[in-house]
């Protein structure tokens, strides 16, 4: 609850977010007089992240947050593993809701994200869960100078909702009396400057080292819309770095236009596959033959059936999902840059994982070299 002090030093100030495996709180470290993000894992669940984060720690690659402190918390649900890191503004999904980043910001964010993934891969790890909610943005340097009172003045008091039993009975001891609504510390996408594009890659709960451990494709937990197709069609095959490449492509696409290239809104897993085939072309023959539901979407010649919505090919999808929204605001990509982006997306969104480029190949692509990385360099010079 707000005001609780954990581990004798961390005063809970507000909630930052939550997921299936943890809740993240904004806390004031009363010993060092600075704010931290305090991650509380679910009871009795191992937090593998800290070991991986420490293995990735490198002052020269500050897009990955190193744990500051680790401790255990005992409560009515059991023992929770906890750790602290520097806090962040919030994630790119929250920033981008119904809004578009300026062109120069999309380039810098995409370049920074790709460099972060390149660093992770160079250290022998796969992130395994790349999407906008796991990409955070660094807070301004003056944040730690705010008192709790001034923080509440700027961002508002913590918002809570009372929890009650439907039958009116008293709450059991393992349920809190109030739920805290997460606070957003960031800004809207259209208000981002290039100086706001210092990303912090988050949530390494699905990360693994493919050279040291086998992670089967069926155990991929990336959200469906970003999940690589081998998770569906080669469930027993080991996942590797190429899985990140597919998810990186879908995430960059969303940064550019704030609409996913493939959508799971009101769509089944098979409908998602049909979108991918419509946009990218026919599946590898072995996958195609082992997809019994294909007859719902395609005829015997592999052509879309006439009685369904056909997803646009990738070139038209870029025009419809990215350019048209930007044209309304007078900030669309130029023809040469758009061609370079589409070429990169086609190379990354290849069905066979072994045919996808490495992240180093991506960094050498025309769009990265000519647009994204130069913008990222300019953004670092303005910070």
TrEMBL record:
Q: What EC identifiers does the entry list?
A: 2.7.11.1
Keywords associated with the record: ATP-binding, Kinase, Nucleotide-binding, Serine/threonine-protein kinase, Transferase
Q: Which PROSITE patterns match?
A: PROTEIN_KINASE_ATP, PROTEIN_KINASE_DOM
Q: Which GO terms describe its biological process?
A: regulation of mRNA processing; spliceosomal complex assembly
KW Ribonucleoprotein (keyword) present: no
The answer to keyword Transferase applying to this record is yes
Question: Which InterPro entries does its entry note?
Answer: Kinase-like_dom_sf, Prot_kinase_dom, Protein_kinase_ATP_BS, SRPK
Q: Which residues form the Protein kinase domain?
A: 10-368
Check the record and name the SUPFAM superfamilies matching this protein: Protein kinase-like (PK-like)
> GO CC annotation: what is one?
nucleus
| Alphabetized Gene3D superfamilies for the sequence | Phosphorylase Kinase, domain 1 (3.30.200.20), Transferase(Phosphotransferase) domain 1 (1.10.510.10)
Using the UniProt record, name the top-level EC class of this enzyme in a single word: transferase
Which GO-annotated molecular functions does the record name?
Answer: ATP binding; protein serine/threonine kinase activity
Source superkingdom: Eukaryota
| Entry binding sites for ATP | 39
* Catalytic activity annotation: L-seryl-[protein] + ATP = O-phospho-L-seryl-[protein] + ADP + H(+); L-threonyl-[protein] + ATP = O-phospho-L-threonyl-[protein] + ADP + H(+)
List the protein's name: non-specific serine/threonine protein kinase
Q: Which organism is it from?
A: Aspergillus nomiae NRRL (strain ATCC 15546 / NRRL 13137 / CBS 260.88 / M93)
């Amino acid at each position: 609850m707000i005001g609780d002090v954990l581990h004798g030093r961390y005063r809970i100030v507000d909630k930052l977010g939550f997921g299936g495996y943890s809740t993240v709180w904004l806390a004031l470290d009363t010993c060092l007089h600075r704010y931290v993000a305090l991650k509380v894992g679910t009871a009795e669940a191992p937090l593998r992240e800290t070991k991986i984060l420490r293995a990735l720690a490198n002052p020269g690659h500050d897009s990955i947050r190193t744990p500051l402190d680790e401790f255990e918390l005992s409560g009515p649900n059991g023992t929770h593993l906890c750790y602290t890191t520097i806090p962040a503004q919030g994630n790119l999904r929250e920033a981008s809701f119904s809004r578009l980043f300026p062109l120069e910001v999309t380039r810098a964010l995409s370049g920074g994200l790709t460099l972060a993934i390149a660093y992770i891969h160079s250290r022998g790890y796969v992130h395994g869960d790349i999407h906008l909610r796991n990409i955070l943005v660094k807070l301004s340097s003056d944040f730690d100078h705010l008192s709790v009172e001034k923080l509440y003045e700027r961002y508002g008091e913590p918002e809570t909702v009372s929890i009650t039993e439907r039958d009116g009975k008293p709450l059991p001891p393992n349920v809190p009396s109030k739920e805290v609504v997460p606070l957003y510390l960031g800004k809207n996408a259209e208000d981002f400057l290039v100086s706001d594009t210092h990303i912090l890659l988050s949530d390494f709960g699905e990360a693994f080292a493919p050279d040291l451990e086998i992670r089967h494709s069926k155990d991929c937990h990336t959200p469906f819309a970003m999940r690589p197709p081998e998770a569906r069609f080669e469930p027993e095959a080991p996942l590797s770095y190429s899985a990140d490449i597919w998810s990186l492509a879908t995430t960059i696409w969303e940064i550019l236009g704030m609409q996913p290239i493939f959508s799971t809104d009101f769509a089944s897993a098979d409908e998602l596959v049909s979108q991918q085939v419509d946009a990218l072309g026919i599946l590898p023959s072995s996958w195609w033959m082992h997809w019994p539901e294909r007859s719902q979407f395609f005829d015997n010649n592999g052509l879309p059936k006439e009685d369904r919505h056909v997803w646009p090919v990738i070139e038209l999808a870029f025009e419809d999902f990215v350019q048209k929204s930007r044209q309304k605001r007078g900030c669309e990509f130029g023809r040469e840059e758009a061609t370079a982006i589409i070429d990169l997306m086609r190379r990354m969104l290849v069905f066979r994982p072994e045919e996808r480029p490495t992240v180093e190949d991506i960094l050498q692509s025309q769009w990265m070299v000519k647009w994204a990385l130069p913008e990222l360099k300019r953004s670092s010079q303005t910070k």
